[in-house]
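[09:14] KT: can someone run the structure on this one? pasting the chain below
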Amino acid sequence: MGANGTTFDYDGLSHRAASSWVAMLGLLWGFAEATVFFIVPDVLLGAVALFAPRAAPRVLAFTLAGALAGGALTYGVSSELDPSRSEAVLERVPTVNDSAIHRVEREMRRDGPRSIVYGPLRMGTPYKLYARAAAVEDEAFSSFFLWSIPGRLERMLPVTLLAAVVGFLARSRIARRPRAALAFYGTLWLAVYVVYVIRIGL
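[09:31] RB: done, C-alpha cells below
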C-alpha cells in the first residue's frame, strides 16, 4: 500500500477496474478517440476485462456510448466546416495522414456508411475519419450512426472478450503476480503502437 492508500495487489486492481469511475473513464476515452485523441479505448477495455471480467460488459457499454457520442460530434462539426478545414484539423492528430483521409472519403463515396466496418479490418484506420467522411459525402446521420455500432464493436468486443477469457482462465497466475501481468499487458500495447507508428507515421 502506498502513501495515498492505493493497493496494487490483485484484489485492489480488480476493485478499481470494476469501479464506476473506470466506466466513466471508458465513456470519456471512447468520446476522445472518436474526436481528436489517437490511442484506442481498447487499451482500457482489455485491462478491465483482464482484472475484473464481470465488469467488462458495463465498461464496454459506456465506452461504446462515448465513441458514438464522439462520432456524432465529429460528424456534426464536419458538416459545418469546409472539407479542407476539417481535413486540416484531423491531420493534426498523431498517426492520421492525408492519404488515409482521402482513402476513407473514397470508400464512403463508393460504399456509404457501411464502409465504417472496414476500419478495424485494417491496422487502425481511425473511426473519426469515417465520421468526417460521412458528413463530407452528405450521408444521412441515421445511417452513419447505425453503422457506427457494429463498426465500433468490431474491434472493441473481440479485445474485451479475449482479455476476459484470459482473465478467467489465468486468474490464479495473474493474482500471484498482478504487477507483472499489468506490465506485460502494457508492453503488448506499447509494441502495437510502436509498429503502428512505424507503419503509419506521426
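[09:33] KT: thanks! The two ends are 38 Å apart (CA to CA).
[09:34] RB: yep, looked fine to me
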